[in-house]
Amino acid sequence: MNLNILLCLVLVATISCNPIVEAGGQDWWQTAVFYQIYPRSFKDSDNNGIGDLQGIISKLDHLKDAGVTATWLSPIYKSPGVDQGYDISDYRDIDPIFGTLEDFKQLLAKAKELGIKVILDYVPNHTSDEHEWFKKSLENDNEYNDYFIWAEGRNNNTEPPNNWVSHFKGPAWTFRKERGLWYLNKFAPQQPDLNYRNPKVVQAMKDVLNFWMDLGVDGFRVDTIPDLFEVEDLRDEPRSDDASATPNDYEYLSHIYTQDLDETYDMVYQWRELLDEHQKTNGGDTRVLMTEVYSDFEKNIKYYGLPDGSRRGAHFSFNFELIVKVNEGSSSMDILTIIDRWVDNLPEIYTPNWVLGNHDQHRYPSRLGPENRDSFMMLQSMLPGVQVTYNGEEIGMEDGQVSCDEGADPQAIKNCSIFDAVSRDFERTPFQWDESVNAGFNDGGRTWLPVSDKYLENNLKKQKEGVRSYYNTFKSLIDIRKELTLKVPTKTALLKESVMAISRPINDCRAYHFLYNRHGDTKEVDIPYGLDDSKYTVVASKLTSQHIIGDEVSQQIKLDPNDSLIVRETC
Ligand code: GLC
């Protein structure tokens, strides 16, 4: 009998047996590692304190060395920079702080040479208030007056049109005397929301996608997609059940009229058609669409498309559960429950994905404890489907130290009393390349955010030189992942209460097993799903583990508290 079936039958208790069957062959993106570059903080080639395209070009070899095959760049378009580029004043040009369109073409060419796909951030929900469209809308220009959501206020136009709250706190409306009306801004006032009920907006934003695909980009990460549409009659939203929220907080309301509307899903499906069409007409590999969604599972998977396959949407919609549901206190059981939920419930035609961090969330070594960083690095790499890595995670970078007066995040700098709680600057400090001045981010000029004071002990150069280092672990995990195609089942088990196990049996004679003794005393466990006469070799382990790469271990294995490792089983 096949090893998988046999073991599924034997080990039913705490174990989930759920092979993920891929739909129609495995495409380049389906098990790729997407590496997110935050351009401001990656590499500053002209020493002006802000990272740039020439800096990225000079470091593409690093991506190659790490084994990464696709990179997603946070916004590089023209922008006043209020929300660090997520406020765009020209969708078709590069901001001078990052370089020129020529630099971008050079970046694309070099990436292509190295076999690295390039994904751009697509920010459809809002522009900058300095975008031509908004300026003309403000002037009530016939062509543009309906490009944004304008409305009359309440109480003789003295108060916002309704009770909606911005993600960045306070009313989601700003009054402009030029038009005598209020406009919707779900983020900063300098980020007016576009009106997708206007077909001209829909077309103009589709043209943006075509513009970049014509230049050769391989896909898009779609920013804050759930916000795209809101109900037309602008009715008030009801109070949420978050008792601790105050009326100024986004969490105060239940966002049933401003998020995840049917029209929003439809627009994603339309963009997917456009991407597929572009590939059909121009040839080349799949242009990939990935959506940024923090909504619950049921709403999130609708961004993938309709379950009967009649309409397709994002190739994958970010799975942020390891960010929002896992914390330092989470047990092995808690984490396995979160994993099983995705693995068991995602329809087979879709590809799962796993994210541990990004530029909006504290870095996971800081969130989950620096002593656990390599365990989570291994965990992520053993999960099926796409892995998304935020720059710096490959060396286990922690959050930097930023004070309110050094900060730049628009949702935090206006109010220093909430800076530590809400600022996203901590996870955006410059990349730590080496031990030279400013961690090698630039040649010693000022930096837009301070360089973390941890850079001497943690930088890429040092980790490359180390025998056991996070970077070396990251690289060996990428090699292992190459074998873990979507056809390889994912099986989880909880052993002796504290040890989580994730097994990926490749065939009857070869498997990988991840074991992590989280929050437990020393435990001796049997590697699950193994055969009697198998050989077990350690292929990755926690830097402090007594189990070293290359060690042969028996099926019964001892794990110290918090120890973790991956073994390869062969027979
Ligand atoms: C997304 C981005 C975030 C930005 C927001 C508004 O959530 O990731 O950085 O502030 O959208 O564009």
TrEMBL record:
Keyword annotations of the record: Glycoprotein, Glycosidase, Hydrolase, Signal
Family, per entry: Belongs to the glycosyl hydrolase 13 family.
Residues covered by the Glycosyl hydrolase family 13 catalytic domain: 36-428
Alphabetical list of CDD domains matching this protein: AmyAc_maltase
Name of the protein: alpha-glucosidase
Leading EC class: hydrolase
GO biological process, one term: carbohydrate metabolic process
Annotated GO MF terms: alpha-1,4-glucosidase activity
Reaction equations catalysed: Hydrolysis of terminal, non-reducing (1->4)-linked alpha-D-glucose residues with release of alpha-D-glucose
SMART domains named among the record's database cross-references: Aamy
Native source organism of the sequence: Brassicogethes aeneus (Rape pollen beetle)
E.C. number(s) listed in UniProt: 3.2.1.20
Signal peptide: 1-23
InterPro entries listed in its UniProt record: GH, GH13_cat_dom, O16G_dom_2
